[in-house]
Model the fold of this input.
Amino acid sequence: MAGRFRESVKGTLARVPPGTRPGWLPEETGPPVSLTACLYGPESFERRELRDAREIGSCLGRTPVLWVDIVGRPGFPTLHEIGARFGVHRLALEDLANLDHGTKIDHYDNHVVMITRFCTQATVRSIRNLGIAWGQDFVITVRNDRESPFALVLERLEHPGSLIRNSGPDFLAYRLLDASIDSLFPVLENLAEELDELEDGAYDALNRRFPARVHLFRNRLSVLRRHLWPQREALRALIKQPSPLVSDTTRTYLRDCSDHLEQALQEIESMRDTASGLMSTYLSAASHRLNELMSLLTMIGTVFIPLSFITGIYGMNFDPYSSPWNMPELRWRWGYPAVLALMAVI
Done:
């Protein structure tokens, strides 16, 4: 095989150079990455902007939990520093550098890495990738988009008595996963509203755009399902696999996340079935309208066929003076009114 390919959310392929050793990290290109550190514990919370990854060293050991949020496309300098400071495996760093692949969960000796999805807006096109890694006293998040669903998580971190402030990094990872999953529900709500509009137009047989709209709607559902299904499987694997980095309390909350994903997938399947039924309803309505039109044309044809037959006979232009058998009624004084009366009776 010429190289390793990974499917991204947008359907593009992230290419790794052929022959590259495992754990390869790309160079940083494009806009510089943004790093934010959140240091917190039961007694304190501090949020600071970091100029580069080397400043992470000044944050280590000051609080029970350190959360480093990376926005952009980190490359070798940033991720190498992350690996050195937190002991993150090179394969995990490669996953964090290349988020454009499917949802996954990997367990290492001293940390867990998960690639998941979140939405920045209430549309399927706004699905983005999120990388989460956590260990005994740290959480690392990597996202390529500046928009995120973490505002509520940050708000809870500012409250000293909140559960997240009094829990470990695994609970923060749960809250980030939960926020990511919750960001998908506005997408489902918009799709449900669109489905209601489609239901209203299912009986409009004259709406020629209806089949195309249903096709696009089902395509969006398929895209969303394709992203959520592996996310559910990864979350189930995280719940089932024993790990000292996931407490029993956090595991209970993760089951709630799994239930939310299951609910979302069931809603998607329900909307897919409804959309298929709407297409059948539209085709039935179109067929019914076609049958009505054919019935009308049949009635019109039934009326005009005998009339056409009569007018066709008298349009043959035989000369009645050449033979007594050549339409003698043409010489009758009341011939024309009689034919009109006959046609009117028919």
Remarks:
- The first helix runs from residue 76 to 86.
- The chain has a mean pLDDT of 84.
